[in-house]
Design brief:
heterodimer, A: 278 residues, 8 helices, B: 486 residues, alpha+beta, 5-stranded antiparallel beta sheet, 11 helices, binds protoporphyrin IX containing FE
């Protein structure tokens, strides 16, 4: 059994976990809640095994390198990080409804990695420029950042739904965490993500400096990561302004995650050098 | 929580410095009354730059304008733009510097405004924060703690004195500073930690400035260029990328060897150049460079960036005599004439070309030479490397073919000098550390008020933090729980 097969199976496990979380949110059955958490937990373990196995396989092929070198591998790591961070939040806040808004993202990322015809799941040898520990640090930091922004994105939607239902009539929204908790979680996740995005951009710059002798070159991927950074910096500062709470912060968090997605996928369609997928 | 926080800060932090500067301007106004309308501008300008609204607007402007340069390819030649956009649009884009927007005056202006915003804001607040951070005796205001919503109260069977003995070591283990004040009715324990983290924001903002200063130093005093060095040759200058001019080095660099290796799949595995540095003719440093591992000498860095083939300098040829059928193998240097055995005449390899076209056919790489038979006119000879029997077509008395030759390469090096890079790297480290401090550490203060009630005690515990109030509320809850159980 090789890593690609395990990871394809995990895609379905995450799909199932997402289904249970949503079902629990809608039908509010305790069995579903337990099932959801256990499925997500099993998914994370399988995901971890898949990543480690892939690492081992690359050494068996004689081209050993950390499994963080192409779009497929980064998406796998992205899903892993989303679910791990989510499970920590679930444990701390004892709310499983957040899972209905975040685990689907992990499932979608895995499904895209496993099923898109444009993404190869082959273990490829590293090109000379990619042989750098800075690159590994860069990918890990960026995707931890992206994963927490993804969860903040899910929580922002929850905030906006809850906010519309001023009378508290909707049965579906009744068990959402309170406004201020959602707002605070959003903020915490953005801070956490911002720290890692900052670290990711910096390790990327150090890598570029060791490979090409320049730490910044305004290529589209670099520029888009900076745009993302500016958007989240705006969010962090806007919170200090009077009246900028909740709703507007949620919008900024959603826009920020759109910028993350564009940095990740969209940039490959722009003219430039940094393409990761091709 | 944050709104309140902001109000609190505005009261404590801003009010003081602003009042001071107002007084100074008042005095000026009295003396130069007629200048009053103008004298107010510095004050207003200063206020404009202390606004966090300005930061938000600037950050959003930077985010949105930066998009333009990713949609329109930057720094291409005018011809490319003309064919893509046509004349009128090209003129418009050019006038607004959109074709090199990240170096345009308006983008730089946004960055300067951002920097001014950070500087003015920091100056405006630093002295007040400084006073808070570097107090000798941390002040505590009991009435503030009593009003806190996270306040917890309980009764204990022991006396305040007993409780002090238990609580004090417990609290001082968890907080950096602990103090016990005796009151009429009992005692109060004040504790706090991480007061200094209030300076974290200044670290972040200072590091943003360091990044900008480092980039500026690099662009003024550094250079960025390239050089191609053929294997075995030495260079003493490089070509600058932006101006195309030569930049002399005060040492020389020789490429001793270049190698490229490939994976089975055919994609490149490693580019490796063996470089030697010479000062006044003496070797001082030797290093193999690969991508991601450059040579650094006297602040100048040589990065492996490309390579290419070079015409060989020597070639080994086979000469087959048609008369005797014997094959003679001989090494020749290009341009040097050699004498052939059996009196077959003289031969010189004149040139190497790749690719070579022969009657409309591409024959790949080939050597071009001149054969001078013993008594006869010189004839032109074409020797394609891949077709050893090609020369038979000439039907001469000797058939010449290429036996082998060493492929020579040049190594393409990116050469940079950036005296600002250490400032930038210092900024990198500071911004990560600073973000961690500002986001995840807060100045936490705690008060435990113990009041004597008969032989028992009434205990109140409450705490504040300048950030993450929900986290502090939780912490107070667990602390209260632990105190009850102690
Ligand atoms: C990139 C350019 C930045 C600009 C132009 C900027 C500007 C500002 C300004 C003007 C303020 C208001 C300060 C005041 O009212 O005294 C502020 C506050 C703040 N900034 Fe930034 N900032 C930048 C980057 C950052 C970054 C990257 C962080 C991340 C850690 C950050 C964190 C903060 C925090 C936490 C505050 C609140 C300070 C307080 O409440 O005392 N800033 N910033």
């Amino acid at each position: 059994m090789n890593s690609s097969i395990i990871l394809s199976i995990i895609t379905f496990v995450y799909g199932l976990a997402a289904f249970f979380y949503i079902a629990h949110w809608v039908f509010r059955k305790d069995v579903l809640a337990k099932l959801a958490t256990w499925t997500a937990f099993i998914g994370v373990i399988g995901n971890t095994v898949g990543i480690i196995l892939r690492w081992v396989e690359s050494y068996q092929l004689g081209i050993g390198h950390a499994p963080l070198s192409n779009l497929y591998e980064s998406l796998i790591f992205f899903s892993w990080t989303i679910v791990v961070i989510y499970l920590i939040i679930e444990r701390r806040h004892k709310s499983r409804i957040i899972g209905a808004f975040t685990t689907p993202l992990a499932f979608l990322a895995m499904a895209y990695a496993s099923m898109s015809p444009n993404i190869s799941n082959q273990i490829q040898p590293l090109l000379p420029a990619l042989k750098s520990n800075w690159l590994i640090a860069h990918v890990i930091a960026c995707f931890i950042g992206y994963a927490s922004f993804a969860i903040a994105f899910g929580i922002s939607w929850m905030y906006l739904f809850k906010q519309r239902d001023t009378g508290g009539e909707s049965r579906l929204l009744a068990h959402f965490p309170k406004h201020n908790i959602l707002d605070e979680l959003n903020h915490q996740l953005v801070m956490f993500g911002f720290l890692f995005l900052t670290t990711g951009i910096i390790t990327g710059a150090v890598w570029a400096n060791s490979a090409w002798g320049r730490y910044w070159g305004w290529d589209p991927k670099e520029t888009w990561s900076l745009i993302t950074w500016f958007i989240y910096a705006t969010l962090l500062h806007a919170r200090l302004m009077r009246g900028w709470h909740g709703k507007r912060i949620a919008y900024l968090s959603i826009i920020g995650f759109a910028a993350v997605l564009f940095t990740y996928f969209g940039v490959n369609y722009l003219p430039g050098l940094h393409s990761y997928g091709s | 929580g944050h709104e309140q926080d902001m109000k609190e800060k505005t009261n404590i932090l801003i009010a003081e410095p602003l009042q001071k500067s107002n007084i100074r301007f008042e005095e000026f106004k009295n003396i130069f009354n007629f200048l009053a309308p103008f004298m107010d501008y510095p004050n207003r300008l200063w206020k404009f730059f202390t606004s966090i609204k300005l930061s938000v607007v600037l950050l959003l402007l930077l985010a949105t304008t930066s998009i333009i340069g990713t949609l329109i390819p930057q720094n291409k030649s005018p011809e490319q733009y003309l064919s893509a956009f046509g004349e009128p649009l090209y003129r418009i884009l050019d006038v607004f510097n959109i074709l090199d927007m990240y170096h345009s005056w308006w983008f730089n202006l946004l960055i300067i405004l951002l920097a001014s915003n950070i500087i003015v804001c920091s100056i405006n607040r630093l002295s007040a924060t400084w006073k808070i951070v570097f107090v000798k005796i941390p002040p505590f205001n009991i009435s503030r703690f009593k009003k806190l919503s996270n306040k917890e109260e309980f009764f204990d069977q022991r006396t305040p004195e007993n409780l002090q003995e238990i609580y004090e070591p417990f609290i001082s283990k968890r907080f950096g500073y602990t103090r016990v004040d005796q009151t009429d009715k009992g005692l109060r324990i004040f504790a706090e930690k991480w007061r200094w983290t209030r300076l974290g924001v200044y670290t972040v903002h200072l590091s943003v400035l360091l990044l900008l200063v480092g980039a500026l130093v690099g662009s003024i005093f550094g250079f960025d260029g390239y050089v191609n060095i053929p294997e075995g040759e030495t260079v003493s200058s490089i070509r600058l990328r932006n101006t195309g001019q030569l930049q002399n080095l005060d040492f020389t660099v020789r490429c001793d060897d270049f190698n490229v290796s490939f994976y089975d799949s055919g994609s490149p595995k490693e580019f490796r150049s063996k470089l030697s540095v010479f000062e006044a003719g003496k070797p001082v440093l030797q290093k193999d460079i690969i991508v991601n591992d450059p040579l650094r000498y006297k602040g100048i860095n040589f990065f492996q960036s490309s390579y290419g083939p070079l015409p060989p300098r020597e070639v080994t040829l086979n000469f087959q005599s048609v008369e005797t059928g014997k094959i003679y193998r001989q090494n020749t240097i290009i341009g040097q004439e050699i004498k052939l055995p059996e009196g077959m005449g003289k031969f010189v390899v004149k040139d190497y070309r790749n690719p070579v076209d022969f009657r409309g056919q591409n024959v790949g790489e080939a050597f071009l030479g001149t054969l001078t038979p013993k008594d006869g006119d010189p004839v032109f000879v074409l020797l394609p490397a891949q077709f050893p029997s090609f020369d038979r077509m000439r039907k001469g008395s000797v058939v010449i073919s290429v036996s082998g030759y060493n492929q020579r390469y040049y190594t393409g090096l990116q050469v940079t000098n950036d005296p600002g890079v250490w400032v930038v790297y210092a900024g990198f480290i500071m911004i990560i550390v600073g973000c961690f401090i500002t986001f995840f550490m807060s100045h936490q203060r705690l008060c435990i008020d113990v009041i004597k009630k008969g032989g028992k005690s009434k205990v109140m515990i409450a705490g504040t933090a300048n950030k993450n109030k929900l986290g502090m509320d939780k912490k107070i809850k667990t602390l209260a729980q632990k105190l009850v159980e102690l």
